[in-house]
Amino acid sequence: MTALTLYALTGAALIGLGLYGLIAARHLLRRIVAFNLLGSGLFLYLGAAGARGDGPDPVPQALIITGIVVALSASALAVGLLVAGARLSGRATLPEEAE
Amino acid sequence: MTFVLDAVLCALILGVAAATIAGHGVFRAIVFFIVYGLLVAVGWVRLGAVDVALAEAAIGAGLTGVLFLAAYGRLGREGAGGDAPAPAHLPAAMAGLGVTCALGWAWSALPLPDRPGPQLAEALPMSGVENPVTAVLLNFRAWDTLLESVVLLAALTGLWMLTRDAAWGGRIGLPQHVRPDGVMAGFGRVLPPLGLLVGVYLVYIGADRPGGAFQGGTVLAAVGLVAALAGAVRPPRIGATRWRAALVAGPLVFLLAGLAGAALGAGFLTLPPQIAGAALFAIEVALAASIAVTLAFLVLGPPEETITR
Amino acid sequence: MADVATVVLTGIGLFFFLAGTAGLMRFPDTFSRLHALTKADNLGLGFIALGVAFQAATWREVALLALIWALALLAAGTVSQLVARAALGEEETR
């Protein structure tokens, strides 16, 4: 097994972990964190795929940098929605999932 | 030997990620996520993608961590900071495992990519910069980056729409209470000059070596955040004209450069080699300024203090 | 010769990190854990930076390593003060 395969499989496992957290978590901030984990795993998989052959390919690298910045701005918007929702309802879970 | 290093690093990344998902408490999950970001940044260095490593360390671990911690604090004020117990979820586990296995299989079935190597090496001297990642970002795939700078602006607009009516016109973010002679106030005066230097250097060096508008802009945003958290500067009021100008400077200069390409007959967003160097430098500087201001405002969040009119 | 110095110095640095981590896990309260973490780990980082400096090709790299160590010291000192103050506030309200 090469190092690239190792990082790609790590990325794949991170995507699975993130997906689990996204579905299973109840607290919405934990869901946002899990979604970031999922995205980060996807970047790692893409980066490892782009580094095969002769050295890292700049095109996926540029896409990943763009993606990291977009992930932050989307997370900031999600966090803003969550805080506004919690201000109205007093909790950070979805209403249909409240126990 | 290096394979052992990679294997240990990957095991650490997965262990910390598992702790982020499965650990008890929202605060703990956030702290593990920050550690995770730092470890992944080391992973990017191991993959030879230094530009990505800089972005991941500054954004993934730094700004995202600040954003989540601040959100945790705000939720605590609303009485929603406590963790909601999440029972083990079998369908979610099967979905996660299934996606992981499918991606693992896809990796073994993935054909080797057509190398862009020779074409890129031929085109690079015409791009106006030496760093191939910067060349792709600002020249060869300029469309992606232009639209991304607009996405940042759209996210900030969306966030600001969530401001309560009573707080509109106030200073953005939570009001900060800092002891004027405390350590944080001192830190907020010592670090920003050095941070400014590093941020401007990263923007400037991005043309030839790892760095650029995104990494430098993020460092500059972090400098602004530290100064604001330490009470050294007060965040501007929401919608102040000068700061709105800073928000749109990047997309605007990018568009103007694209129109200049069209006027010179090369086509929209296609920069002819004779102006590429100067145009890319202008785009990089304006974009870094816009990214810095937008990211800092995104992390600070909408204004909270009620304005008395 | 330089390699020997690197191995010895980074080895000492790792030992301090190990000690700091043991303190973080074993000490009973926030203040003593902070004490273990900041003192031992900053010293360990200094030794590792010194060890890596022997591998540097230019004086510029040595200066950068020294700058990184100084910044880490500054950040660790500030953060430990802030954490200690927060912990103190929690104890007083208890």
TrEMBL record, chain A:
Record-stated family: Belongs to the CPA3 antiporters (TC 2.A.63) subunit C family.
Protein name: Na+/H+ antiporter subunit C
Principal location: membrane
InterPro entries reported for this sequence: CPA3_antiporter_subunitC, NUOK/Mnh_C1-like
GO cellular component, one term: plasma membrane
Membrane-crossing segments per the record: 6-25, 32-51, 63-84
Membrane topology annotation: Multi-pass membrane protein
Cellular compartments annotated: Cell membrane
Pfam families noted in UniProt: Oxidored_q2 (PF00420)
Domain of life: Bacteria
Keyword tags: Cell membrane, Membrane, Transmembrane, Transmembrane helix
Gene3D superfamilies: 1.10.287.3510
Keyword Metal-binding in annotation: no
Residue ranges the record marks as coiled coil: none
From TrEMBL, chain C:
Protein name: Na+/H+ antiporter subunit G
Transmembrane spans: 6-28, 40-57, 63-84
GO molecular function: sodium:proton antiporter activity
Keyword tags: Membrane, Transmembrane, Transmembrane helix
Annotated organism of origin: Rhodosalinus halophilus
Pfam families in UniProt: PhaG_MnhG_YufB
Keyword Methyltransferase: no
Alphabetized InterPro entries for the sequence: PhaG_MnhG_YufB
UniProt entry tagged with the keyword Acetylation: no
